Structures are given as structure tokens and as C-alpha cells.
Amino acid sequence: MDLFKTRQEKLTLFHKNRKKETVRKEIPSHVIAQCENCHVNFTLKELQMNKYVCPECGHHFKISARERIRQLCDEFKEMDKKYITQNIDNFPEYDDKLDKSQRRTGLNEAVVCGIAKMEDQTCAIAVMDSGFMMGSMGTVVGEKITRLVEYADKKHLPLIISCTSGGARMQEGILSLVQMSKTSAALKRFSEHGGLYISLLTHPTTGGVSASFAMLGDIILAEPNCLVGFAGKRVIENTIKEKLPENFQKAEFMLEKGFVDAIVPRKEMKATLVQILKMHGGNR
Question: For residue 179, what are the CA distances in angstroms to 167, 168, 211?
Fold first, then answer.
């Protein structure tokens, strides 16, 4: 007992005399956000009020499909919400990935489609979500976008598609690649009937999506500094054995080369879309 007291006294004395270490406090992510570009900290409330654009450097954070709809649309009525992907080829772990994405995003798939009002302009709109398996395009994504294009054609509505994607969904194999031609064919018919299609490119827009409907817009807008391309920069460099420019596949580079019509900051996007819709006569 005496020995125990002696040891306790020694430990107490040791801790009292020891230099206090600085304790790193973890700040909850729902309180403070950090810009991944300039690394400046600010409150999440401040970021939300600034439409998820860094107040310091103007870096555009990724946002969900629901948040983009909230920013752009005054009214929105969703279509084809019931469509849910089935793992028909029994691809390993695909069901788990779908379940995780559905729970994380609250969406059934990587695109939300519907009819919207922006001020006094009515349009058909599809908004992709990179939080759902990187916005990859499978059969359901292709089907929902195709159905929206056909609905816009039938009802004589202008069409807006907000694109963000890693490309075709590998878990669905050839069926995902078919969606490229399927959506493109629907847009071709829409164009032949005089429909207006505005494509909005956001970070990132790559792979099978950039190689199909993303780059088929009558007017193509992009958010600042977003990545737009098909294959990755490293893959292209290894294939052609040449060094590519530093800003290769950035929206600004695409604008310079004529692939993009305008780069529009997120704060100005809604007003820009409304102006374009009005200039083109609104609803046909």
C-alpha cells in the first residue's frame, strides 16, 4: 500500500512538472470548411451563403444535384424518380456500391431530371451528381436523360443538362456504353425539331459523358477551372509521347480552343441561363 502511494505520488509529480503538450482539436466538418485550393478556413455557413464558392480565391466546390437545383430553379418537379439500377450482370460488389451511394446522396441514381421554372422561363433540366459513383453513366442515367430529352421535344421546352461525371459505368459494361449513342440520337432528333439545348459543364466532366451529350449543346457553358476531357492527361501523354500544356483540359483552355462558348461563375449562372432562354424566345 505504501509502495502504491509512493508510485502514485511520483506519477502525479511527473505529470505536474512535465511540459504540457499542445492538444490538436479537430473542428467538426459541419462548422468549418477549408478551401482545397488556397487552404483558407471559413465557416460552412459563409460557404453556403457564397453558393459554395471560396470567398478568398473563387474556387468552386463540388455541389450535389439537389443543391444545384436549389440554386438554379425557382420551381422544380422531378420526373422518373422511380427508376432504380438493377445489378443484372451480378457484377461483384456493385449492389453494395449502389446502396452506399443511395444512402450518402439520398438519390436513386446519379442524375435528377425534371421540369423547372427559372424566373418566368420553363425548361426541362437534368442535373448530374458526382457524389453518386462519381456521376458515372449507367443504363438508368442514360434512360432518364433520354426520356427527358424526348419529353422536352414533345412539349416544346428548352433543355438544360448540368454535367459532371467520371464517364461510363464500368460495372454495366457494354450496356453503359450504349447510353452514349442513345442519348446522342435523342438530342439529334431534338435539334432537328428546333429544340434549344444548353449544356452546363461542371467539375469534372470526362469519359463517355463528355464524348456524348455533354459536348452536343447548342450553347456550352462551363464553371471556372472545371476539368473537361475524355481520357486522363497522363494517359494521353503516354500515348502520343508529348508533354501537354499545364492547363490542358481545363475550362479556360477549352474556351480558348473553341470547345466552350463561355465560362460563367456560379453566382452568375442562373441569370445567364435565364437571359439565354429569353433571347431564344423561351418556350417554343
Answer: 11, 8, 11
